[in-house]
Design brief:
The protein has 180 residues and is mainly alpha-helical. The chain contains seven helices and three strands. It folds into two domains: 1-83, Orthogonal Bundle (Arc Repressor Mutant, subunit A); 86-180. Helix 1 (2-8) packs parallel to helix 5 (93-106) and helix 5 (93-106) packs antiparallel against helix 6 (111-135).
């Protein structure tokens, strides 16, 4: 969550309410369960870590105060490093989706390049799983587990194809894939 919040602050400083709205929009129905307090706790932790700084306090029409946060140099460096790192073998689909959205929003990475890098990771893992499947009796417990791993990887690869179609369709129109 911290890296996503940092990425959303790359283009411009923002307050917690706006960050929550943008994250909820990016997650669709899954975003409905996003706790607003989680954003504020995350911002507080990022501020303590020196990754964001309170830039100002706005007072909207209704009189409530909104703290507007911006990135520090350390925050910019961390989000750039996050964009550059691979997703890892056990990456969560929601987490990777947020990384794609954050990449498009921040302009720090091309979502299609992230999809391609993830595809390469999954293809390597799938090849390893398929070799292991061939080395075991498919009627064994281990064979069943290995088959499940291979099927999950295949499903993740199909999902990446859908990601690629969606992000490719956005690019020509100049939408940039931003949140909202």
């Amino acid at each position: 969550m911290q890296d996503v919040v940092l990425a959303l602050l790359v283009k411009e400083p923002s307050h917690g309410y706006d960050l929550r709205r943008r994250l909820a929009a990016a997650l669709g129905p899954l975003g409905e369960t996003l706790n607003a307090g989680q954003i504020y706790v995350t911002l507080t932790r990022l501020e303590k870590a020196g990754l964001v700084v309170l830039e100002r306090v706005d007072v909207p029409v209704r009189g409530s105060r909104r703290k507007v946060y911006g990135l520090t140099v350390a925050g910019q460096e961390r989000v750039a490093a996050w964009m550059a790192e691979g997703a890892g073998p056990r990456a969560d689909v929601t987490e990777f989706h947020l990384k794609l959205v954050a990449a498009a929003e921040s302009g720090l990475a091309d979502p299609l390049a992230l999809v391609e890098a993830r595809r390469r990771e999954l293809m390597r893992s799938l090849a390893e799983a398929q070799r292991a499947v061939l080395a075991h009796d498919m009627d064994s417990r281990a064979g069943l587990l290995l088959e499940g791993i291979a099927l999950r990887l295949q499903a993740d690869l199909r999902w990446l194809e859908a990601c690629e179609r969606t992000w490719s369709a956005r690019a020509p129109r100049g939408e940039g894939g931003g949140i909202g």
